[in-house]
Design goal:
Blueprint lengths: L3 H7 L12 E3 L6 E3 L1 E4 L3 H5 L2 H13 L4 E3 L8 H13 L7 E6 L5 H4 L9 H15 L4 E6 L8 H13 L3 E7 L3 H13 L7 E3 L8 H6 L1 H6 L3 E4 L28 H7 L2 H16 L4 H10 L6 E4 L4 H8 L1 H4 L5 H11 L9
Parallel strand pairs: 3-4, 3-10, 4-5, 5-6, 6-7, 7-8, 8-9, 9-10
Antiparallel strand pairs: 1-2
Helix pairs in contact: 3-4, 3-14, 4-6, 7-8, 12-13, 12-16
The protein binds NADPH dihydro-nicotinamide-adenine-dinucleotide phosphate (NDP).
């Protein structure tokens, strides 16, 4: 941190701002995670070159981000390899950062992986963990997520396996991603009955366009089990920047062939109109739309960390400012946002 400006000049990056990153507990655990974190989906080992990945990680780390998110499936394992090479090269003290992986899809995806190479059975969880450790070049994963629920494995098998990995020192905390509140509670029940370690965190999608799970479905379990959340796609893959309203750029994520399903689902008139209005409101406040959209996620106290994604350094630099401006989202501003979104989820009437 002392040579912050020098480091960036050496890298040819015009970035000399120190951020006042804040840290939150990951749910009821004692783990302090930066309120913004950094993920590598689509980008590392795929959309962007390794040099850009390295500069993004360096920028994130120097801005106070202490958590980098990854998964076996990202770029078929290449995302973890790229991140592992960067972690090795940077030689940051291992106790200064948190790194994750996720298991379920297999590195080739559900369709192309062999039956034993996917799912949440003991064999795949244990082997995927070993493989992620090798690719990331670390001795343990701080966070290990079950990337989706697995209808073909008894929950007991998954909970016991995660507990054992913690006992063996291969992972520190385990959690889920896109599980329902009921599935998470089943895992807690099994863990409690058998004196095993409960899941600590869930990784759900949360942004101005997708709110139900975090705002309603999990409302009760935030209180009862102290669930932590590492939320994904805060910009709905970039739609909330407003850039998709001006047409599809060749270098935009959703112009990628493999993501046509996501484009069809999300690049729709209703979302684009909302994004345009978010841009206008952000400008009124002297902010950019991504800053406003990320700050809006940060205002939710049940969010432990907002995972940022970026394909360019300028994007990350812009988005990192969201932490500092979140207090500009007064009740009045939040009300204006609700008027634009018209999607405030309804809580049950009790
Ligand atoms: P976002 O919704 O924030 O999308 C990030 C993308 O938006 C960037 O890669 C970039 O794409 C575009 N973008 C970001 N900032 C700007 C900006 N300032 N101006 C213009 N465009 C911008 O987050 P992600 O969808 O990447 O999700 C974040 C992380 O969450 C992932 O990396 C992954 O770790 C995790 N995740 C987890 C999932 C799960 O199932 N558990 C699923 C999905 C993500 P481009 O430049 O290409 O347009």
């Amino acid at each position: 941190m002392e040579n912050f400006e020098q480091t960036y000049q050496n890298r040819g990056i015009k970035f000399a701002k120190k951020y006042n990153m804040e840290y939150r507990r990951l749910g009821k655990s004692g783990l302090q995670v930066s309120e913004m974190s950094f993920g590598s989906w689509i980008t590392f080992g795929n959309q962007i070159g390794d040099n850009t990945s390295e500069n993004l990680m360096a920028m994130a780390y120097d801005a106070g981000i202490n958590f980098c998110d990854n998964a076996e499936i990202y770029a078929s394992g290449k995302s973890e390899e790229v991140m592992g090479n960067i972690l090795q090269k940077m030689n940051w003290s291992r106790d200064s950062y948190i790194v994750s992986s996720k298991v379920f899809f297999g590195i080739k995806g559900l369709q192309d992986s062999k039956p034993t190479q996917k799912g949440l059975n003991r064999k795949h969880i244990v082997e995927a963990c070993e493989q992620a450790l090798k690719r990331l070049k670390v001795d343990y994963l701080d966070l290990y997520f079950c990337h989706r629920p697995d209808k073909n494995t008894p929950i007991e098998e998954t909970v016991f396996t995660m507990h054992n990995l913690i006992q063996q020192g291969k992972i520190l905390y385990w959690g889920t991603s896109e599980w329902s509140a009921q599935e998470i509670m089943e895992a807690h029940m099994v863990a409690k009955q058998n004196h095993l370690i409960c899941p600590t965190m869930e990784q759900p999608q949360y942004n101005m366009l997708v709110r139900e799970k975090v705002e309603v479905e999990f409302a009760q379990i935030f209180k009862t089990v102290g669930l932590g959340t590492t939320i994904w796609s805060p910009l709905a893959s970039g739609i909330l920047t407003g850039k998709y309203s001006k047409g599809m750029g060749d270098d935009f994520r959703l112009s990628r062939e493999e993501l046509s399903w996501l484009k069809d689902r999300n690049v729709v008139e209703e979302n684009l109109k909302k994004a345009d209005k978010i841009v206008a409101l952000a400008n009124e406040l002297g902010l950019t739309a991504p800053q406003l959209a990320i700050a809006w996620c940060l205002k939710n106290e049940n969010v432990s960390t907002v995972i940022l994604g970026a394909s360019k350094l300028s994007q990350l630099e812009e988005n990192l400012k969201a932490g500092e401006v979140k207090n500009m989202l007064t009740a009045e501003v939040i009300e204006k946002i609700e008027t634009i979104l018209q999607n405030q989820p309804k809580h049950p009437p009790f």
